[in-house]
Design a protein that fits this description.
single chain, mainly alpha, 0% strand
Length: 179
């Protein structure tokens, strides 16, 4: 294998290492691996990889309960522009960021992001939209507004039922009962 091929593969190896370490609970080591991957992705101009490394880092910070770092990192991921990407903003990334804001106790900011994300979903993104509707319902529950939570959670339930996501239905049933 040529040296330049190994150099090109290296950031992906760091990404995989980070995923493995994160799943083993080694959050700090996972972050270090993602940071190495991020540096290499930037060096090679791999914008999708840069966005993925930042997203993985943000998710790892979230799992570690480091909400501010998760928000900062996921915000950076949202700002990475990928040449040829037809959409200005990916609604799934907005939803992920909204979920972090909700987890960190910032329901109002979460609601702002959800309002931006929901109109951006395309017809073929039913599973992602169902997840977004569920999070929107939880945002409204957090804001003590069951009248708005109920339709969002019901829509999420119906969407998951249509696409056969039975694992999501139990959690949604509990959320609906809370509403």
């Amino acid at each position: 294998i040529r040296a330049d091929t190994i150099e090109f593969i290296e950031p992906f190896a760091f990404m995989l290492q980070g995923q493995i370490l994160s799943s083993l609970g080694e959050k700090e080591l996972a972050i270090e691996s993602y940071e190495k991957a991020l540096r290499r992705m930037r060096q090679f101009g791999m914008f999708e990889g840069e966005r993925a490394a930042l997203s993985n880092m943000g998710d790892t910070y979230l799992q570690a309960g480091q909400y501010e770092k998760a928000i900062a990192t996921l915000t950076l991921a949202l700002r990475v522009k990928v040449p040829g990407d037809s959409r200005e903003t990916n609604p799934g990334r907005l939803v992920r960021l909204a979920d972090v804001y909700l987890a960190s106790g910032h329901a109002t900011k979460s609601l702002e992001l959800m309002d931006q994300a929901l109109p951006l979903f395309q017809e073929n993104e039913k599973r992602d939209k169902a997840t977004a509707l569920e999070i929107l319902g939880r945002v409204y529950l957090s804001l003590n507004d069951p009248e708005k939570a109920l339709p969002a959670l019901k829509s999420a339930f119906d969407e998951n039922l249509k696409i056969g996501e039975s694992a999501e239905l139990t959690r949604l049933t509990l959320d609906l009962a809370r509403a």
